[in-house]
Write a structure and sequence with these properties.
two-stranded antiparallel ribbon; 95 residues; 2 domains
Length: 95
Amino acid sequence: MGRYYSEAEKNKILSEFSRSGMNKSQFCRKSGVAESTLYKWQKKRGEISTEPAREGFIELCTKESYELKIGAVTLRVPLSASAQKISELIKALQC
């Protein structure tokens, strides 16, 4: 049987992962958390991004919308939105 993690520990580990800049494999090796466990926590919380996005790329999902995190703002954009509209939204949020 695996190790039990409290909700506070899960939140702390997920937060550390999102700030780490490492991919999931690297982070899990360093922290001692199984990749499947980290994935399960992310899935339960509805997090889309499981790997840090490379600069210049937007990670896409197969859901009904994109979820973009810009600073403290999370923006959900319908898949039908044009690239131009998305670009305009991002520029407006960065001001």
